[in-house]
Design goal:
4-stranded antiparallel β-sheet; Jelly Rolls; 42% helix; Arc Repressor Mutant, subunit A; transcription; 10 strands; HTH_AraC
Length: 260
């Protein structure tokens, strides 16, 4: 399975984290896709996956998807042929490109046509190779950019370990005002976003230091203790850390977003 990331044009750097592509073969196994603090637009150019729903039912996904912020993992069963192109937005980038109140899409996966119509999906589907798809996105997205993210939201994103009250004090607003603005533009509360990024950071530490035990990873990632980390993992990923890591090889491993 081949996974690659590509930088957007400078005009999009404030809104788009990266473009990514994934190619390979699915083996039919169910893959957990973890929350990572980002919204994404995803295009399946070969066989779309099935999403496993509660009650054991499955739903075939559209070729073009808009994935809102997630607060728990999603279970996908890849098709036999994987050829995927994705646009990963910065935490407030989806708001910059749509103007939508992002909390309204949190926990939802929408057909991409509901966001920008059919044009982008058609252009990407007709492009020949990843380089052409990047060029398509680089041409399509800048005209949809709106106002920049307010400084107080940027401050909360840059300093996730700083208390919300302190960021609000520095910005000259109330905690409630900051939380409302953050939810509108990021789709999560500052506390939920910080929990997700802390989990992703702990996964990053696990990859960098496979010899570390989970107690050390918990301390280095900023958890109170290992029990605190286990509780967050169960809430966000549906499994404790060791079991989750065992389930990630394949598509889920590439789409679990470790920190950079």
């Amino acid at each position: 399975m081949r996974y690659e990331e590509h930088r957007p044009s400078p005009a999009l750097s404030a809104a788009v984290d990266c473009y990514w592509s994934l190619e390979g073969s699915g083996d039919g196994s169910v893959q957990p896709i973890l929350p990572d603090g980002h919204c994404e637009a995803v295009f399946h150019l070969a066989d779309p996956p099935q999403r496993l729903l509660s009650g054991g039912t499955a739903a075939r996904q559209p070729r073009g998807l808009w994935i809102g912020q997630m607060e728990s993992s999603v279970l996908l069963q890849p098709g036999p042929r994987l050829r995927v192109f994705g646009i990963r937005f910065r935490p407030a980038g989806a708001w910059m490109l749509t103007g939508w109140h992002q909390a309204e899409t949190t926990g939802h996966i929408l057909p991409l046509d509901d966001v920008w119509g059919a044009q982008l999906g058609e252009l990407l589907g007709n492009a020949r190779g990843t380089a052409e798809r990047i060029a398509v996105a680089d041409r399509f997205l800048p005209a949809r950019l709106r106002k920049p993210v307010p400084a107080m939201v940027e401050a909360a994103l840059r300093q996730p370990r700083l208390r919300v009250e302190e960021i609000a004090r520095q910005a000259g607003c109330s905690r409630r005002q900051l939380e409302r603005l953050f939810q509108a533009q990021v789709g999560l509360s500052p506390k939920s976003w910080t929990r997700i990024r802390r989990m992703q950071h702990s996964l990053h530490l696990r990859r960098l230091h496979p010899g570390w035990n989970w107690a050390r990873i918990a301390a280095e990632a900023g958890y109170f203790d290992q029990a605190h980390m286990n509780s967050d993992y169960l809430s966000l990923a549906g499994a404790p850390p060791a079991r989750l890591v065992e389930s990630l090889p394949g598509m889920g491993e590439h789409l679990a977003r470790p920190d950079r």
